[in-house]
Amino acid sequence: MIATRAALALLLFFLSTLPLAAQYSERVDVSIASIDVVVRDKAGHLVRGLTKDDFEVYEDGELQKITNFSAIDARDPGEEASSITADVTTSAPETAPARAVRSPRLLVLYIDVQEIDPTSRREFFQAIRTFIDTAMRQGDFATILSWTNRVRVVLPPTSDRAAIDSAVDEFSKQGFSPLWETLRRVQESRLVQVAEAEEFLGEMGMASTSDQSADAAFEEFARTEDLCGKLKRKSREMRNLLTHLTKIEMKKVLLFVGDNLPLKLGPTCDTGPQLTALANTANAYGITIHGLHPSGARTAMIGPEMDPKFFPRSNEPTTMARQYSRAFDESGGLHLLASTTGGVSGAGRQTGELLKRAAEDLEVYYSLAYSLSPGKEDKARRVKVVTKNGKYRVHARDSVVRLSEAARLRDEIATNLYFPKEAGPQSPEFTARVVRIQRDGRFLRAAVEVSIHASDLFLEANGNDARKKGSFSIFVAGGRELGDASDVTELRQDFWGSKDEDATTPIVYSFETRIRPDTRRLSLAVRDNNTGEVSTSIVPLMGEE
Questions:
Q1: Who contacts 25 (Cβ-Cβ below 8 Å, separation ≥6)?
Q2: Residue 456 C-beta-side C-alpha neighbours within 13 Å
Q3: Looking at residue 524, what is its pLDDT?
């Protein structure tokens, strides 16, 4: 716990002192959609030298006007051999633009694996090191996160290559997780016990009372439901993590390493909505996600050597086919995230080649932008980028999202849990304190008191009435660790006031919120609904300062 807090403190210190955040600002204009595009020929070589007039962008099938265009090429002159220069023979009168200076990048390595095949563990993480060494340039930073029932900061953002390599090496040296072996032994022991019980009952001339198939089905259902809840919570925390990362104003690339992120875990578990929301958030904030499923041993939990009934019949798939199918199912979520955000994805030993391609995509690409039409807020708009030369292959995100002001505000409030924002000069001032905390079943109920400066709230005229109407909303969210935040709740309150009343008299608003026992802090925001001005504050819990 001390190590986790120390890592988080370093991350916060990094954000407060990083000069690049001010020097290279990549603020997202909500009315502009920016898309990074990688172009290759049929042989897989990167294509250089294209201009704006060589591209077409379609949103939901309608051609859009490209308003901004730049070509980014960070390759050294000696690296030209792996790419080609476009033969620009189109009618475009425009000459190829000069190389644009690329912004610094933050490479985020997120590791969520339990079972990597011991024989390929070192090889896999060596490929990760090669990717980081290749992709990181002057001014870039990298951070490493992991998942152990919550997001953990393993290495705060740093440009120190030695520290990055050391952290990655630690993962490559970790012992093989005994989870699958434990499950295999438990299942094998259960099969032996059932067989012995049935044999004993047979010797006694009694019918077996054990319904092995029914018991196994129930156990599988219970396991699936438990894992389903964990996967959905993981997706929500990952979405919160992406909104937190937006505070670092650099181009961000997320390398998601996972061995169990299915789209549909079972008949009653569909994680698609949560993963789609995660992908939409990444697209809304311009974050690319690459998904890697390393070679593992999860599929070895049970097989013919354990139970003869698992030998395939003539009309059943082979063991290898079942294992391949299961590995594909477990990486379905990774494929969704990568294909939606313009990343690459794959499983097994092909990850080395995929990482090489991902590093190339970060070096030579085109940045296109077009104006978003009003409406369709918080919904994915299908986007397709093509070149007028049909021989070229274009790789880019397949959707864009324009977040509503309400969605951005909720993200800001959740982000404020760990990256507090300074209030503007027109923001309403307020103070907040927790009056009482008491247990409510498995949760806690916190009574909160908010005191707002009445003079900071705007009053609107109400006809000939001497009293004027004001309105404010209080937003609240609870948090535990970086990336972990509860849903944001809005409490709206209208009130009547007069300019003759004592402006120094505060408006006191009390409410109760239900929180998890491990919640460490509350993020509160007050919005003047008449002006839209917002201010935020943090209320510590559990002895935090």
A1: 249
A2: 22
A3: 92
State the sign of the Cα–Cα–Cα–Cα dihedral 379, 382, 385, 388: negative
Q: Which residue, 108, 356, 103, is CA-closest to 251? A: 103
Q: Which residue has the tokens 């807020």?
A: 377
Q: How many CB atoms lie within 10 A of CB 178?
A: 12
Q: Evaluate whether 117 touches 259 at the Cβ level (below 8 Å).
A: no
Contacts (Cβ under 8 Å, ≥6 apart) of 314: none
- For 280, the enclosing helix (H) or strand (E) is helix 272-284
Q: Which amino acid is at 317?
A: P
Work out the angle between the directed axes of helices 212-245 and 405-415 (0-180°, nearest 10): 90
Q: Work out whether the CA dihedral 215, 219, 220, 224 comes out positive or negative.
A: positive
Give the contacts of 63 (CB within 8 A, at least 6 positions apart). 56, 57
* Six-digit token string for 63: 């051609």
Burial call 19-29: b when 16+ CB within 10 Å, e when fewer: ebbeebebeee
SS3 99: strand
Residue where the block lists tokens 């992406």: 242
Which helix or strand (DSSP H or E) is residue 114 part of? none
How many other C-beta atoms lie within 10 A of the C-beta of residue 285? 18
CA distances (Å), origin 432, targets 184, 448, 451: 52, 7, 6
Q: Is the dihedral of CA 289, 293, 298, 304 positive or negative?
A: positive
Cβ atoms of 106 and 251 within 8 Å: the answer is: yes
Question: Mean pLDDT for each 10-residue chunk of the chain (545 residues)?
Answer: 47 44 42 91 92 94 94 65 50 47 84 74 87 89 86 87 90 60 53 64 63 60 77 86 83 88 80 90 92 65 38 48 54 89 85 88 92 88 93 93 89 81 77 90 90 87 77 90 79 79 77 88 91 89 57
